[in-house]
Amino acid sequence: MKTQPIIRSLLDTDLYKLTMMQTVLHQFPAAEVEYTFKCRNADVSLKPYAAEIKAQIKALCELRLTENELHYLAGIYYLKPDFIQFLKLFQLNEQYVRIGEDERGQLTITVAGPWLHTIMFEVPILAIVEEVYSRNEYAKVDLKEGQRRLMEKTEAIKKHPLREHFKLMEFGTRRRFNREWHCHVLEHLKRSVKSNLVGTSNMYLARELDLLPLGTMAHEYLQAFQALGPRLIDSQKMALETWTKEYRGDLGIALTDVVGIDAFLKDFDRYFAKLFDGVRHDSGDPFTWAEKMIDHYKKLGIDPKTKTLVFSDGLNIPLAFELLEKFYDVTNIVFGIGTNLTNDVGVTPLSIVMKMTKCNGQPVAKISDSPGKTMCKDETYLAYLNNVFNAS
């Protein structure tokens, strides 16, 4: 019996893939990149599922955006007409994906080709791997436990004394238990805590459930400028400048941890701090990060209450409320919660990523504020990057 495709629409991805893709189309259409998949679960082998994953990626590459989907995208004011015309022709190409195994017999997935034509692979491939693993390892899981946990979360939101200040963004596409559960979670959130749900990163579900699609940039965007820019030391500034050139004040949340928060703050001067609406946290201690950002805004003569801090690193509801209690009266706070919403059903989810590791033939890397999150194939380059940004 033929297995149903896991990804059934090219919109079943995160908004920031499209916002970055538009920037690539306009600014760097000839850039060539490589992405590398990594499973951080030491006790998990995905090799038995290689054929199924490959078949799902093949099905993904048969998809095209429908006229209704294109009409929806055309209604998003910061997506430009020429980009919509490009998307009418767009289709993922299976030839850019290589599936194999490393020297330890672990599954490898590499995507290599033009950035413009490969940028849309990451999110659906991660969702495919997670769901293939879940349907094989946890075929008989009782989702009543997941429902109990979900209701526990929404009840905690309803009862919290600072509920009116709690702003939630759903960020769980890449590591969801499966697509049906993802939809159920969002429907429940919309029904139970509608006033707290700001929106979702998932374009398909935003359209289906009449929610606001949310997202700006990912690590790959800033990483690419390590190879695209004239000088490595200026790569973050060039990335931020290019973003402002593309969006002219829209989508103003900057990502802070590509070469560490301290190096970011050196580049995030008064010009950028005033141009961008806020910043997003994705590694390192969130309390320390928030204090550094608030102090930075104050030193620049900017009222932190006029800026937004987005927390999105492995969050759960209790931690989000701890952060809210600490900072809600100092700055505007939003919480992007992913895996803890879409893959908290009583089993252990995979910890999987797919990161850009090359751009235009050169190594690129993220120097994470969290130990173990740094990912680079070239240790010499990583040392050089650390040295240039004093991030070690």
From TrEMBL:
Record domain Nicotinate/nicotinamide phosphoribosyltransferase: where: 166-391
SUPFAM superfamilies, per database record: Nicotinate/Quinolinate PRTase C-terminal domain-like, Nicotinate/Quinolinate PRTase N-terminal domain-like
Pathway: Cofactor biosynthesis; NAD(+) biosynthesis; nicotinate D-ribonucleotide from nicotinate: step 1/1
Maturation and modification: Transiently phosphorylated on a His residue during the reaction cycle. Phosphorylation strongly increases the affinity for substrates and increases the rate of nicotinate D-ribonucleotide production. Dephosphorylation regenerates the low-affinity form of the enzyme, leading to product release.
Signal peptide: none
EC number: 6.3.4.21
Catalytic activity: 5-phospho-alpha-D-ribose 1-diphosphate + nicotinate + ATP + H2O = nicotinate beta-D-ribonucleotide + ADP + phosphate + diphosphate
Stretches assigned to the Nicotinate phosphoribosyltransferase N-terminal domain: 11-129
Record keywords: Glycosyltransferase, Ligase, Phosphoprotein, Pyridine nucleotide biosynthesis, Transferase
Enzyme class: ligase
GO MF annotation, one: glycosyltransferase activity
Short name of any one Pfam family annotated for the protein: NAPRTase
Residues carrying Phosphohistidine: 219
GO biological process, one term: NAD+ biosynthetic process via the salvage pathway
CC annotations in GO: cytosol
InterPro entries per the UniProt record, alphabetical: N/Namide_PRibTrfase, NAPRTase_N, Nic_PRibTrfase, Nic_PRibTrfase-Fam, Nicotinate_pribotase-like_C
Function: Catalyzes the synthesis of beta-nicotinate D-ribonucleotide from nicotinate and 5-phospho-D-ribose 1-phosphate at the expense of ATP.
PANTHER family, sorted: NICOTINATE PHOSPHORIBOSYLTRANSFERASE (PTHR11098)
Family: Belongs to the NAPRTase family.
Record's protein name: Nicotinate phosphoribosyltransferase
Organism name: Pleionea litopenaei
Lineage, highest ranks first: Bacteria, Pseudomonadati, Pseudomonadota, Gammaproteobacteria, Oceanospirillales
Gene: pncB
